[in-house]
TrEMBL record, chains A, B:
This is CRISPR-associated endoribonuclease Cas6. The lineage of its organism: Bacteria, Bacillati, Bacillota, Clostridia, Eubacteriales. Gene3D superfamilies: 3.30.70.1900. It comes from Thermosyntropha lipolytica DSM 11003. Residues 131-247 form the CRISPR-associated protein Cas6 C-terminal domain. It comes from the Bacteria.
């Protein structure tokens, strides 16, 4: 198991407090206390974390989403949470205890190749992708927090993670994020700013929904679907291990695209690389 | 009277249909039939219209907002609507008749100087401005419709209008829009896409609310407040004579700004120009 997404239903505490996204960093703290000290140290040192987690409040209960992006993270984080001895989360300094109910391993992929195949073997990939930003999403660019979505930043963020953790399938192409952004656009959204609490600061971010339309030849459509689909595991933007950037992805309309520009897109899949090369005719 | 904003309450028609922003271009058509043929021809030829109008649905009635930006428009558009013989709006091809109720001349300024004074004589201008985009706002930039707000585009749009219609007070400064955008930022928003119907097409746009924070010396704060305040008359973005870009402006927090950069901002107000010059120390 190399990629996994676990959902744990949490009940409110004795006082009726229900966990919400604002508690993301407290849940992260609890998680770090549970993993082995060596692994915690390793995670602390790594700039890009091989896992993401966020809390989603849903009526009178909450869903805690935890994703692992490599084999070790699956072993160190997901597997222990599935064990019977884990039955509640205690946020000590807040004196809150949340009981874990149903545990659902929603997705698990043996490899990145298996995840990629899911999109590349699809005969008519979605040309409209709807994303729900469940917890606040933010990007750092030009030294500033970006509170509006940008497809370029979104793709770059996901490509970086993919290449960091996908050991046998990597995306090698100059300016790939820019190319993908040129062939897709945000067609609709309903978004609002949210400020994510982190120790003593609040990080500017946004949450809500948006639709992405893809005007590209099929293999590129598959690639965009794959990257956006991956965000449901990796999270999107900054601080995804602390509870930010929790997203859900819905692929929608299918059907062929016919643009003015004819496009030939070749995918060289080898054991080592999923290389993508473009060439455009007139 | 050089600038005026008129609000007319409209009742629903016999079938209970209430006018909404989607009817903007139909209301424009009705208005153009009422003005003198010479003036209609003049308006048709002018790229930047000296008026704006939009329809705001409010519960079981609607408010029709009409603003005039120069003396002729006040005379040709606002004054006739205030006359008693105007009592209903007939959208012929839809066979709808909307009765006019209360007519309120919400604002009227004798001159642009008078409007400018309102902001420049304010001792502590607002450092937070909240805007409500009541009807869909869109910009054209780089050959594309912009469905996210950009302060640079907003300021440029308003400066262009101001300089077009303010005969004795103009804003002359290179890169003024960029400078203003550097000294302010969108701190919060709740926006969604809306598609504005125009004959046979739908123009991508956005509506909702946003807050703008201004980090600048007082005179620049006054200028930004003035420009944004002007948008309540001129409308914002494209197609403001057809019902798009209807905005409301709320000035909020007051108080001094203390930035790292010391700034000296001089305003030379003469009969002809309200010139703005910047010089920054370290």
């Amino acid at each position: 198991m190399q990629i996994a997404h676990l959902e744990i239903t949490l009940a409110g505490d004795e006082k009726g407090n229900i966990p919400s996204y604002q508690m993301g960093s407290l849940f992260h703290g609890w998680l770090m206390e549970r993993v082995s000290p060596d692994y915690a140290r390793l995670l602390h040192q790594s700039e890009m974390k091989p896992f993401s987690q966020y809390v989603e409040k849903k009526g009178q209960e909450a869903i805690w989403h935890i994703s692992a992006l490599d084999r070790t993270a699956c072993q160190e984080i997901i597997v222990p949470l599935l064990e019977e001895d884990f039955s509640c989360i205690e946020i000590r300094h807040k004196k809150e205890v949340f009981k874990a109910g149903e545990k659902k391993l929603v997705y698990s992929f043996a490899s990145y190749k298996e995840l990629a195949d899911r999109y590349y073997l699809e005969s008519t990939p979605s040309r409209v992708v709807k994303m729900e930003m469940v917890t606040p999403v933010s990007f750092r660019s030009g030294g500033e927090y970006q509170i509006f979505p940008s497809l370029h930043l979104i793709y770059q963020n996901l490509i970086n993670r993919w290449n960091q953790f996908a050991d046998k399938v990597s995306l090698e192409e100059k300016n790939l994020a820019a190319t993908l952004a040129e062939h897709s656009f945000i067609s609709g959204y309903r978004l609002e700013t949210r400020y994510f609490p982190l120790e003593k600061i609040f990080i500017p971010a946004f949450a809500g929904r948006m639709s992405i339309k893809i005007a590209a030849p099929s293999p590129m459509v598959a690639l965009i679907n794959m990257l956006l689909g991956y965000s449901a595991f990796s999270g999107l933007g900054i601080k995804t291990s602390l509870g930010m950037g929790g997203v859900r992805v819905i692929e929608e309309k299918r059907g062929e695209w016919s643009g003015k520009r004819q496009a030939i897109l070749k995918i060289h899949s080898s054991r080592k690389f999923l290389m993508i090369k473009y060439s455009y005719g007139d």
